[in-house]
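Quick one, tokens below. Sequence please?
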């Protein structure tokens, strides 16, 4: 503790400054007490200052919300910043019983199965297990998991508008849409012609489209649509001819946020492995940028005597940045120069090259992240195997395209812009740069995976003079192996420059041992001053997050309760809503028992339902309460029926009873002092 005493004076200053500013009750005695608490907990003055910078008092609110993908948990996690407290987990690609998501053949099970839940009538779906897959690529059974990867908050004018969040499934070519009016996933769309996805997902500046591109190139849609099979020999020797990437612009309904394949289009790409992608904005509005690696088109085949993929894919000095003019693509589609393939309009690679929709620019070896600066003027590309970040300028790109400053064309006829003609600068940062985010002062922050650090560097003009441009200015160590990073609104046109979250893949020794599967580690970094300052760790024990976006909390405006009788599936009043228990009723017809059930504290009406073995039971549940937080549950034992009924909500479930017996349905939320009594009987006779 000697060290502590030596440095106690700064703590007094920190405590005095902080307390003095916000409380009249703080006295000299209060400061002494703070010192004593810090000392007794073994905290250094810096630790104590960090605690004060991140603490949110009981009942208080965080300034920002972090929406972090949950990786192969299939979820999105909502975390308050700076307190780093988990506020909610949103189920997207995996069932989640607390939220009743994916149980009971209701709208959520349909959404999860890729069905159109919005137009779901009570009898539309039979067992609710259908899976619509226009591509014909996807599985015939409903998927039970997804790899929630890159979230994209909707934007208006290049700024988050708080309406929806989209997220891609890395394992499959799917996108989930979460409605932020109630924080529930409403739609899961299988994008045709993709097997896996990575590029994006991002929203165009007004969320006209969300973009997703393939990860591993897929069998060319033309082949797949003809049901052709591919032999191992084809795969190894004809890879360049029969595999393709696809860049997809998925149209978003401006009122509902629903994705509509009929208004969407796809651009065929060479089978370089397309990686991260980002949307142009401001100066680069109308463009999209996608990285790639494996320009070598290596396939692996270790036992066939070929190099492993990671070796084969790292031979050349350059891969290709894909520059897509999507406004031109829209025009080409409007002119009818497309082929309808598996439910989507596809612009062929030949057309994309001929019409100037697709250009390539060399980028140093095996890049990973591509990130557009807030005004859209610079595009930063980080190469996993190159210690530099390469910064492209949209002005230079536009000039090079106009002047056809090519260094050649690739084997598919796609023009390759001259590297020197489009690059504005390079910055040496350190080992393993991956992803970049921005602040409001013309600075960029890049994650360094191999070095376990975040590097801060300067953009060029107009933010910094020529002499100060593209310079490394600060570095902070993180723990450990950072992947993505998120700064406050740092991928929008309104970056805030306050906080940075390092999303670390490994935590090694940072947390109490809870077994060999360690939590990941988020670290909160203050970026408001000239030096970055590490403030806090947050163990992530619920999945492997990939990317996150951090938005001012007051931009999100969710309802407290649903208006009476609203179905979450459609956000409109359900035709099966009832206003009170007087309207509760049971109707019977051969083979069907249909119930309109009222749910309030602390009973279900009806509380006794009888049925015959084999009957289809349809229950329309309305929580007729309007009190915030007065959520009830509806669970039927042995039937995988579990619904969360939030105040005002109407949801319909259906199931079949195939054995006689008494099934006591009950409320799963501790809603009142008499919650335990909130149960009913489903009596099934032979
Ligand atoms: Cu791991 Cu965004 Cu798939 Cu980079 S991604 S880390
Ligand atoms: Cu309703 Cu417990």
């Amino acid at each position: 503790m000697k060290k502590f005493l030596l440095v106690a004076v700064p703590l007094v200053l920190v405590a005095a400054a902080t307390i003095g500013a916000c409380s009249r009750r703080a006295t000299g005695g209060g400061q002494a007490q703070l010192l004593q608490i810090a000392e007794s907990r073994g905290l250094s003055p810096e630790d104590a200052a960090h605690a004060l910078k991140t603490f949110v008092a009981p009942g208080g609110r965080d300034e920002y919300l972090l929406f972090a993908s949950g990786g192969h948990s299939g979820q999105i996690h909502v975390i308050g910043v700076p307190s780093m407290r988990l506020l909610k987990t949103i189920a997207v690609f995996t069932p989640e019983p607390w939220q009743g998501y994916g149980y009971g053949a209701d709208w959520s099970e349909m959404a999860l199965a890729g069905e159109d839940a919005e137009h779901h009538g009570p009898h539309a779906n039979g067992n609710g297990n259908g899976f619509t897959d226009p591509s014909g690529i996807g599985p015939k059974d409903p998927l039970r998991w997804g790899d929630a990867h890159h979230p994209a908050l909707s934007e208006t004018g290049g700024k988050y508008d708080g309406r929806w969040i989209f997220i891609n499934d890395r394992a499959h070519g799917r996108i989930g849409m979460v409605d932020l009016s109630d924080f529930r996933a409403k739609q899961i769309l299988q994008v045709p012609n993709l097997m896996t996805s990575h590029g994006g997902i991002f929203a165009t500046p007004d969320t006209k489209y969300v973009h997703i591109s393939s990860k591993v190139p897929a069998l060319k849609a033309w082949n797949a649509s003809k049901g052709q099979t591919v032999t191992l020999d084809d795969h190894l020797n004809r890879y360049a001819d029969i595999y393709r990437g696809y860049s997809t612009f998925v149209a978003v309904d401006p009122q509902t946020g629903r994705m509509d394949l009929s208004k969407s289009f796809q651009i065929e790409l060479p089978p370089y492995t397309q990686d991260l992608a980002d949307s142009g904005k401001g100066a680069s509005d109308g463009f999209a940028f996608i990285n790639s690696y494996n320009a070598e088109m290596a396939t692996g085949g270790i036992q066939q005597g070929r190099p492993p993929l990671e070796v084969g894919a790292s031979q050349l000095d350059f891969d290709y940045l894909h520059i897509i003019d999507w406004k031109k693509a829209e025009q080409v589609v409007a002119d009818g120069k497309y082929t309808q393939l598996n439910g989507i309009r596809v612009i062929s690679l030949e057309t994309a090259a001929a019409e100037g929709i697709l250009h390539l620019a060399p980028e140093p070896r095996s890049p990973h992240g591509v990130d557009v600066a807030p005004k859209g003027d610079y595009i930063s590309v980080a190469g996993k195997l190159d210690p530099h970040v390469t910064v492209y300028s949209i002005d230079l790109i536009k000039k090079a395209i106009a002047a056809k400053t090519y260094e050649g064309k690739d084997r598919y006829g796609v023009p390759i812009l001259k590297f020197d003609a489009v690059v504005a600068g390079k910055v040496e940062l350190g080992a393993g740069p991956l992803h970049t985010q921005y602040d409001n002062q013309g600075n960029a922050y890049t994650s360094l995976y191999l070095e376990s650090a975040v590097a801060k560097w300067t953009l060029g003009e107009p933010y910094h003079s020529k002499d100060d441009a593209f310079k490394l200015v600060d570095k902070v160590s993180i723990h450990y192996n950072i992947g993505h990073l998120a700064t406050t609104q740092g991928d929008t046109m309104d970056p805030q420059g306050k906080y940075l979250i390092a999303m670390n893949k490994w935590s090694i020794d940072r947390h109490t041992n809870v077994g060999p599967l360690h939590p990941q580690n988020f670290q909160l970094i203050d970026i408001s001053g000239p030096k970055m300052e590490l403030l806090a760790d947050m163990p992530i024990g619920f999945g492997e997050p990939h990317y996150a976006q951090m938005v001012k909390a007051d931009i999100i405006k969710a309802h407290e309760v649903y208006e009476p009788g609203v179905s979450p599936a459609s956000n409109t009043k359900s035709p099966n809503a009832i206003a009170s228990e007087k309207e509760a009723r049971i109707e019977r017809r051969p083979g069907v028992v249909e119930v309109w059930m009222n749910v309030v504290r602390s009973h279900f009406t009806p509380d006794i339902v009888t049925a015959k073995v084999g009957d289809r039971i349809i229950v329309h549940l309305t929580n007729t309460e309007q009190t915030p937080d007065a959520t009830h549950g509806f669970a039927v034992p042995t039937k995988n029926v579990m619904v969360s009924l939030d105040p005002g909500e109407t949801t319909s479930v259906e199931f079949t009873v195939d054995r006689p017996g008494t099934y006591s349905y009950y409320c799963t939320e501790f809603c009142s002092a008499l919650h335990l009594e909130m149960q009913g009987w489903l009596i099934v006779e032979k």
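Confidence is low (pLDDT under 50) at residues 1-24, 118-139. Residues 149-150, 198, 276, 368, 434-435, 483-484, 546-547 surround K7E (ligand 1) (CB under 6 Å).
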